[in-house]
Write a structure and sequence with these properties.
This protein is an all-alpha fold. It has four domains: about 70 residues, lambda repressor-like DNA-binding domains (434 Repressor (Amino-terminal Domain)), CATH 1.10.260.40; about 120 residues, no CATH class; about 70 residues; about 110 residues, Serine Threonine Protein Phosphatase 5, Tetratricopeptide repeat, CATH 1.25.40. About 70% of the residues lie in helices and about 0% in strands. It contains 22 helices and no strands. Helix 16 runs antiparallel to helix 18. InterPro entries: Cro/C1-type_HTH, Lambda_DNA-bd_dom_sf, TPR-like_helical_dom_sf.
C-alpha cells in the first residue's frame, strides 16, 4: 500500500519506527501519554488539528505533508538548478584519486586553492548556495588532486575544508546522507591530525542530527571536544578554544534532540565560559563560534526541548544586540527559520509569517531552497489567508496559496 493511501495513524507509526522511537519516546517528546500515541496509531483517536499534526511532524522530523498523505509539490526552476548542482557534487564525491597521474593535468598550486577555499567559505556565509554548488565539484577535484600529489599537512587541510563546506551545504539542502559521506571523507583525510579531525566532526554531527541520529552525533562531538583540551604542543594554543566551543554547541544541539535538558544546560554553560575568552575576530578553523553563537543555541535548544514560548521571549533580546549583526547572514537567516517554527508551535501565524519574511530578506536562498523552510511556508499556507508578502513567497517557491 502506498504511503499516501495509509490512514494518518499508520503513517505516524511507520515514521516513528523508522526513527527508532518507541511509543513512549514519541509520547514524551510530544508531552502526551503513551495511550494517546497508541490510540492515534490505531485510528481510535483522529489527528484532525493541523497544529497537532505539525507538532508530530516536527518530532518525527518530516514534512507535515507526509503525515497528510499529500504529494510533494513540483520543483521550481531554482529547485531544479539546485538538484542539478547536487548531482554534480555527488558525482565529484564518487571520484577517487589515489595516485597522481603523471600524464594528467597539472596540480593547482596550494596558494590558489587556499584562495578558492576562502571564497567558498564566504559564499556559504552569504548563503549563495547555487553559486557554491557550481564551484564545489571543481574545488573538490582540484584539492583532492593537489593533495594526492603533495601529501602534506597544508594540502590535507585544504581538502578537509572543501569536504566540510560540501557537507555543510548538503545538510542545508536536505541531502544529509550525502553530507555524512563528505564529512566522513574529511575525517579520513585528517587522520593523524586531531585538531583537523575535530573540525570535520562539526558537519558530521549536523548530518547525523538531520538524519535523526542524535545519539550518534552526541557520541561523535563529546570525544572530539575532549581531544581539543590536550595541553601537549602544538595543540594547546588559544586557537583551539573556538573549535572546542563549537563542538560543545553541536553536542548541546544533539543533547536537545535526545531530550536531555540537563545535558544541554551543562554543555552550553561550558561553551559560554569558552566564548567569554574568545576574540570574535579570530576564527582560524572557520567554525563561527562566539558569544552570539551560544546565545542562539540556548534559544533553539529551548524550543527543541518543547518550550517554544520561552524561546520566543528570549530571541527578541538577541536580535537587538550588536553581536547579532556580526553573524553571517546564513546563520541569522537559519536562526530566524527556527524562530518561525517556534511561532508556529504556539499558534502565532502572523508572527511566524513576519519572521519568515525577515529571514527571506536576510538570505533568500536560506528560505527559498531549504526543505525545512518549505515546510514552514506550507504550514503557514494551510493555516488560513496569508499576508500578501507571505503569499508571494509561497508562490515563488511553487506552493499553492
Amino acid at each position: 500500500m502506498a504511503n499516501r493511501d495509509l490512514p494518518i495513524g499508520r503513517r505516524v507509526a511507520r515514521l516513528r519506527t523508522r526513527r527508532q522511537m518507541t511509543q513512549q519516546m514519541l509520547a514524551d517528546r510530544l508531552g502526551k501519554s503513551k495511550s494517546w500515541v497508541d490510540k492515534v496509531e490505531r485510528g481510535v483517536r483522529t489527528l484532525d488539528r493541523y497544529s497537532v499534526i505539525t507538532e508530530v511532524a516536527t518530532v518525527l522530523r518530516v514534512d507535515p505533508t507526509l503525515l497528510l498523505g499529500r504529494t510533494t509539490p513540483p520543483r521550481t526552476t531554482s529547485g531544479a538548478t539546485v538538484a542539478a548542482g547536487i548531482d554534480a557534487v555527488r558525482a565529484a564525491l564518487a571520484r577517487y584519486d589515489s595516485h597522481p597521474d603523471p600524464y594528467g593535468p597539472p596540480t593547482t598550486p596550494p596558494n590558489e586553492l587556499s584562495r578558492r577555499v576562502g571564497h567558498a567559505w564566504l559564499t556559504y556565509d552569504h548563503a549563495d548556495y547555487p553559486a557554491l554548488l557550481r564551484a564545489l565539484p571543481d574545488l573538490l577535484g582540484d584539492t583532492r588532486h593537489t593533495h594526492t600529489a603533495y601529501r602534506d599537512d597544508d594540502t590535507a587541510g585544504l581538502l578537509v575544508q572543501a569536504y566540510r563546506i560540501t557537507a555543510s551545504v548538503l545538510v542545508k539542502l536536505g541531502e544529509a546522507d550525502l553530507a555524512w559521506l563528505a564529512a566522513d571523507r574529511a575525517i579520513a583525510t585528517a587522520t593523524g591530525n586531531p585538531p583537523l579531525s575535530a573540525t570535520a566532526v562539526v558537519p558530521l554531527a549536523q548530518a547525523l542530527r538531520a538524519l535523526g541520529r542524535a545519539p550518534l552525533a552526541l557520541a561523535a562531538t563529546l570525544p572530539a571536544a575532549h581531544h581539543t583540551t590536550t595541553h601537549r604542543p602544538p595543540h594547546d594554543s588559544p586557537d583551539m578554544l573556538p573549535l572546542r566551543g563549537a563542538l560543545l554547541v553541536e553536542a548541546a544541539h544533539a543533547a536537545a534532540a535526545c531530550a536531555d535538558a540537563d545535558g544541554v544546560r551543562e554543555l552550553l554553560d561550558q561553551a559560554a565560559d569558552i566564548a567569554a575568552q574568545v576574540d570574535d575576530d579570530t576564527d582560524p578553523h572557520h567554525v563561527g563560534f562566539g558569544p552570539a553563537t551560544v546565545a542562539l543555541a540556548r534559544i533553539t535548544t529551548t524550543a527543541d526541548l518543547g518550550n517554544a514560548h520561552q524561546a520566543i521571549t528570549r530571541h527578541t533580546q538577541v536580535v537587538a544586540s550588536g553581536q547579532w549583526r556580526r553573524l553571517p547572514v546564513e546563520h541569522r537567516a537559519a536562526f530566524l527559520l527556527d524562530i518561525a517554527r517556534a511561532y508556529l508551535l504556539v499558534g502565532d501565524l502572523l508572527a511566524a509569517g513576519r519572521t519568515l519574511i525577515h529571514a527571506d530578506r536576510t538570505a533568500p536562498a536560506e528560505v527559498r531552497l531549504r526543505p525545512v523552510a518549505r515546510t514552514v511556508i506550507a504550514d503557514l499556507a494551510r493555516g488560513g489567508p496569508l499576508p500578501a508578502d507571505v503569499a508571494a513567497l509561497a508562490t515563488a517557491v511553487g506552493l499553492p496559496v
